[in-house]
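Page 42, continued from yesterday. The earlier attempt failed because a stray header line got pasted into the input along with the sequence. Redoing it now with the clean sequence only.
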Amino acid sequence: MEDEVQFGPFVLSPGRRTLTRDGNPVTLGSRAIDILGYLTASAGKLLTNAEIIRHAWPNTFVDETNLRVHISAIRKALGDTKREPRYITNVPGRGYTFIAAVASLASPDLGIPLRSPAQLVAAERRINAGVFGRAQVVEALSERLLNVRLLTIVGPGGIGKSTVARALLGRSSNEVVWVDLAELSSGELISTEVASKLNILSRSDDIDREIADVLEKRDICIVLDSCEHVVDEAALFVESILGRTSSGRFLATTREPLRADGEWVHRLSPLDLPQTGTSASEASQSPAVQLFVERAAACIGGYQLSEDDVAHVVELCRQLDGIALAIELAAARMDTMSVKALSTSLKDSFRVLSRGRRTALLRHQTLRATLDWSYYVLSPVEQTALQRLSVFRGWFTADAAMAVLDDPEDVVESLVSKSLVVAEALSDATRYRLLDTTRLYAGEKLVESGSYRSIMLRLAEYLSDLFEMSEQELYLTSMDEWSEDFSRHVASLRLALEWAFEREGDEMMGVRLTVAALPLFFRLSLLDECFTAVTKAIAYLDAHPDIDERRRMKLYAALGWPQMRSTEAPEKGINAWTAALRIAERLGDVDYQLRAIWAMWVDAINRAQPQLGLEYSNQFATVAAGSRDPVDQIVAKRLLGATLHWLGRHEQSREILVQMIAEYDALPTGQTARFQFDQRITAKIILARDYWAVGEGERALSEVQACVEQAISIGHELSLTNVLAEAACPLALLVGKIDLAKDYIALLKDHTKSLSLDVWHCYASCFQAEMKLWEGNAPECLDELRASMAILDRAGFVLFKTYFQSVEAKALAALLRFDEAAAKIEEALAHCETSGERWCKPELLRVKGLLVLKGGGPNGSALADVWFQASRAEARAQGAIAWERRLDPSLSWLPAAFDADGKTEIVDLPAAEPNASDRRALH
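This time it went through. Structure tokens are written below.
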């Protein structure tokens, strides 16, 4: 592990705790360096979470959340992603594996010393100061050119094939003859053009023989630049010459291979792109950014990448797919446009990218000219196929291509060979995509052809059929078990929906597609987009009564959930569910009756009305009895078990939930998205709370951690945020595990800031406010708590309000505002009386006693004891040992006393909870 190792463009020196990319330092913490070194030392082997933690944190207990944080930092530094890992992959719940090839820079088995990225960068600069990001390619091809007689560099127009060829020949000792075939109108002229370049003046009937004779006498490399429009004739010419000489060499650049005998093909990749969100110094390590900055500086007489510009430059380079010519053309507009304006205007890239160097070839002076050159050498069938494939955004499969093409198999492969379609072979299939510049160009041609509407309709039908056939898979299986990556269809789905609801679209197809995509929207937590599409679809169906009541029912159900969870006008959500229930009852649809009743139960619980929730849970059970799906009756038990918890009947709740989970686990399949959450996780959330209430705090935290890991493993954001908000954060605080609580709160904030989950984000802020009280900062606790509670009050999400009021009362008391604190507790207790909510009533009574004790005058102790005894009686009635335990003054982990300066007096936490005998003594 102390040896310096190389993988891809990275060099890791564990001993020196450094990581470099192409010779430039990569910022990474020392703990992350240790973990990365451990992974690379065991490349190809699965290392369990426990093994990695033991290595990185020896003799120290840490939660697995810490490991995930460092793995995330490593992946970000390497430019890796969980969906398409190049370096680190994970087995959910088990561990991680380093999957890239690793070479030791000191290994004697290599035969020759391995060049470091820094040496390669230096070599590149010696080759050509204007070549960016191609040092390793040139290095490898230089050696290859010594061993093959026909080397072909293949890639799309403008990617830099000719540039690489020139840099490559700059290192060669061969005599070079450069032949630009783009200037030829016919492939029959290739022999004549090459002979002219070789100064062969006498011409016989066999020009190829004369060329071969010259090559046999001299060490010459002939470059055939831009072969794509005469590729067949170029192949015949090369084979003819190589068959007649033993010394001649050819280097060809083309958009498709020659397929000649003995050909070695190198497909040139786009320039490496930076990750979004990087700093200017980090982005400057990207060859694509380096090229833009160099060309921009030349255009305006000096330019340096600033932190203000970096996001726009990164976005620009990514929009242009790292295509060198496109980046050069964009930089050439810097004299009239800012970087931000350039990035924004690239949606109309052909207008913007229309000015190149006057000395460049005509076909390279504008991006459109480059693409025209590629397009007009295609056959009519290939042109039509390229147009139709432009409707796909991102990657697509052969099945998807079949939906828009008449004869897809051969024509798609033909376009791949011509570098107009990118192909990537996966373990189970091949996927394809068009570069964005090519897609925009082909899309214009599709519109000009008059076929845009018919092809968009075929795309929408394909997606609708796919999602409808996959509905159960989308609902029931984890993302890792999906038969295909449905998320790759999201970009094309967005386009199809946008088209369908436009004036020239097909609104009924938009309705069908929206309904079909509902499971995908929810599984991927694309709730804002779902809301937008559903709103448009409902507007159409409401304007056309009785055209499709079943889909209208589904749309109202989909509309209800996001609006219920919003902090703005949540009553619209209940109205939507009420409409869905009425339609479901009219249609006799048991499934959607259950969904609607479930939603109303959720609303009652969120409004802290468990007595009303009990009515809905009983109604759910009655309808579920007539369902053919055995899961429905199991879900009914979950609703009842959860309701009993909020009513303070913890033991009954625990018994029902244990039974429910056992029955659920016995089923061959589960239900994740039908009732929005993974049912097992949701049941265990309440079960963990029950375990805590009856005095088994450590078991409760163990259940919580398992739920967090399961939610992460199935990739379901809604379930993850639910377990964090309703169990992980509050229980960690109640048990007194402050560091763990901080981790959970941070995780909840992180997973709600970018989603439409503003309610749970407010919960995270409330828990964070309670953390500040633990830390002795009552003023900040009060400010943050009140701000977040005000939002939750307006939205009607008051599930934890009574508990948060107990925190607010303690903060007020810390500031010696005892009257206000007492009023808050009285308000909370009054709500408990009217709603049936009792789960935290013992705590409210205890805090009331503390307020009387600290601010009640000479009789405060006696009056406080009355409230303490009431708290004890309520806790015992509930069987809530955990609440009763908080009354024991010998337990030092209660933040109950306040000093004269108004600061909360927090003492050290105990090493462990009371043991069994201590619990019995409490009674």
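Notes: The first helix runs from residue 30 to 41.
Reminder to self: strip header lines before submitting.
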